[in-house]
Design a protein that fits this description.
Layout lengths: L5 E4 L8 H13 L3 E3 L8 E8 L2 E8 L2 E5 L11 E9 L2 E5 L2 E5 L3 E6 L4 E5 L3 E9 H6 L10 E4 L3 H15 L9 H13 L3 H8 L3 H15 L8 H8 L3 H8 L6 H19 L7 H7 L5 H12 L9
Antiparallel strand pairs: 1-3, 2-5, 3-4, 4-11, 5-10, 6-9, 6-11, 7-8, 7-10, 9-12
Helix pairs in contact: 3-4, 6-8
Length: about 325
């Protein structure tokens, strides 16, 4: 089984260049960020990361340092991600939107990377990080205000379960079959967001129609690989009529069938972008996401994105 983890580290970098190199490493993961030694001579750090579905799982350890997104940088680079940090060693101080939170071992933090923030670590720290594309978080029904600056305990309850799952997934990543990556990513996402109290409030405030719409989307994401996925199957699985499904989905501004194809195409594009040099073919990707005709897939892909699928495999 090939190794799925990428290693970035400062050990081979000159002492004077390490702070800049560390900034570049962090920026590679989630957009342009600045780091400095926080009064120390340099930064010694190491990152191991890999992907499960569209999630990046990273183990990051570093000596005393500070990392920040200055206000003047917002909008310059792309930071389209939400981070969930699970602290395992050392403590860090997180500052964003006027709040200041100390994150200690056994605690977690979820925040929007695109908003100005600063994280200061006065001594060696190690943490596990899940980097989530913001569109994926929002697809799960979480408002932007509900995914920024939430501090939670991972010592017990749902927080502990979420932390254990992320740690196990990271440890076993090289052995995880591609066939189950998306289902595993879905499980990680669902469990990670549960400890966030604002998300729980948001869920409780949903109308029956919004709750049904979310259930429809969840079912679709879990079954995108099935070429026979259709509204009839969804209705049967949810024990309701097709008419009720259409009514619940009406506020989405599209039909359920069009939503299925849109999400499938988005997943195919992501997989093609990640497949350069891997030997994966367009047909492999198309069929793995429920298409049963490569010519039809190529046509609708170009209609949506303006380029052919082969553009991403060059």
């Amino acid at each position: 089984m090939p190794d799925k983890l990428t290693l970035l580290g400062t050990s081979e970098i000159s002492v004077s260049d390490r702070p800049r190199f560390w900034s570049d490493c962090l920026s590679e993961l989630c957009g342009r960020l600045h780091s400095d030694p926080f009064g120390a001579e340099t930064i010694d750090g190491r990152i191991e990361y890999g992907t499960i579905g569209r999630l990046k799982l990273c183990q990051i350890e570093a000596s005393r340092h500070r990392v920040a997104l200055p206000a003047e940088w917002t909008g310059e680079g792309k930071h389209p991600v939400v981070k969930v940090v699970l602290q395992t060693q050392g403590s860090s101080i997180f500052e964003q939107d006027g709040q200041c939170v100390k994150v200690s071992p056994g605690e977690g933090l979820a925040y929007d990377v695109s908003r100005p923030h600063r994280i200061s670590s006065p001594a060696f720290t190690r943490h596990l990080v899940v980097i989530i594309p913001r569109d994926l978080a929002l697809q799960h029904g979480f408002k932007q205000s509900a995914i920024a600056g939430h501090h939670f305990s991972a010592r017990g309850g749902i927080g502990r379960l979420a932390s254990d799952l992320v740690h196990s997934a990271f440890k076993e990543m090289p052995a995880i079959s591609p066939d189950c990556e998306n289902e595993l990513a879905e499980s990680i996402l669902n469990l990670l967001f549960l400890p966030l109290p604002q998300n729980q409030t948001a869920r409780n405030d949903l109308s029956p129609g919004e709750t049904m719409k979310r259930q429809i989307k969840d079912y679709i994401r879990r079954n995108l690989h099935d070429p026979d996925l259709c509204i009839e199957r969804i209705a049967a699985a949810m024990n309701c009529t097709k008419r009720y499904l259409h009514m619940a989905f009406a506020s989405e501004g599209t039909t359920i069938a069009k939503y299925i194809w849109r999400v499938r195409l988005d997943q195919c594009r992501h997989e093609l972008e990640s497949a350069q040099g891997s030997g994966t073919t367009i047909t492999d990707v198309a069929f793995s996401w429920g298409f049963n005709s490569s010519s039809h897939f190529s046509r609708v892909f170009k209609e949506k994105f303006g380029v052919s699928p082969s553009h991403f495999l060059r």
